[in-house]
Amino acid sequence: MSTEVRQESTRCPFAIQDGHRAVLESGTIASYALFGVKHWLLASAEDVKLATNDPRFSSAAPSGMLPAERPGWFSGMDAPEHNRYRQKIARDFTLRAARAQEEFIIRAADACLDDIEASGPGADLVPAYARRLPAMAINDLYGLSAEEGAALEASMRAVTSATDVASVKARTDEFFGHAEKLVRAKREQPGDKLLHRLAEAGEDEILLSDEEATGVFAVLLFAGHDAVQQMVGYCLYALLYHPEQQALLRENPDLVDGAVEEMLRHLPVNQFGIPRVCLTDVELHGQVIKAGDNVIPLYSTANRDPAVFAEPDTFDVTREPEHNFAFGYGIHKCPGQHLARVLIKVAALRLFERFPDVRLAGDDVPMNAGMGLFSPAELRVTWGAR
């Protein structure tokens, strides 16, 4: 049994899409057109695990999806090919590596907050903090200058803002050209940052071509740069919108790790997982997914599955942390998850420490909804006398 799902134009800022919820509650799967290509949506935690961990579903780029096959684009590969590229970046995305970068992130957060305070009272936290802080951390991780990072981010945003397949293809080609120039430049520069290591054979003895290194670099940027910026902004919005939860965190900072997990679970920032292709006919809930059909795991919807999470629509920073799907599942689980957690933790704690009375400047918070992500487009706040 299946249903058809259409994209909503408006929605509650903390709710999963009504259509996605309907799929979850029905216990079925649903059809959905993405870039004019039919996909099956899988919504429950059990179904999401199936699509992301069962060898009958392949991560090879589904027909009609972008980018086209490119060397190094490992999010569109299965094991063992996927593992070769993942191994190349493994040391830079461990929990230890994220913790080692935390001191830099704290300094960067304080620098952002210094500028916010100097220009206040009042600020839009999206450009001034939620986007700027992760960009600083990501530039440090890759070994990019502020200018290189800004130019690359602008090129990437041109891709994600495109509204049709032809525009996406053209802007993707431009982005890859820009990224490959950086890869080639780093081959000529000594350094011990991620982009330098992508461009050379290190202890792993894996030497990538310029095209392969560019593909790996591009996957990391598209999967993590904009997504973590949106995550940080969304988490700050959730705490500002729910002052009682913010107060619990202020009074009990030891709750922060669990609070981060709860925000990742509750906030529907990462709605669509990486599309998969069904390699053989699979029957699921009475519906046959045919070989060659595309499927999409709905991560945010799986995070509201009552079969896994008690009172799943309740936002509670004291909830006992459980596995969630914010970063995916299986071998394609986001490599940058540990860095993202550190960024969210530092961003929240430093903001509320610097501005104990920070609050939303109004009730109207416009939301972004595109490329499978959902988060505040603006986050205007004020502090001081009311």
TrEMBL record:
Keyword annotations of the record: Heme, Iron, Metal-binding, Monooxygenase, Oxidoreductase
GO molecular function terms attached to this record: heme binding; iron ion binding; monooxygenase activity; oxidoreductase activity, acting on paired donors, with incorporation or reduction of molecular oxygen
UniProt xrefs under InterPro entries: Cyt_P450, Cyt_P450_B, Cyt_P450_CS, Cyt_P450_sf
Family designation: Belongs to the cytochrome P450 family.
Protein name per Swiss-Prot or TrEMBL: Putative cytochrome P450 hydroxylase
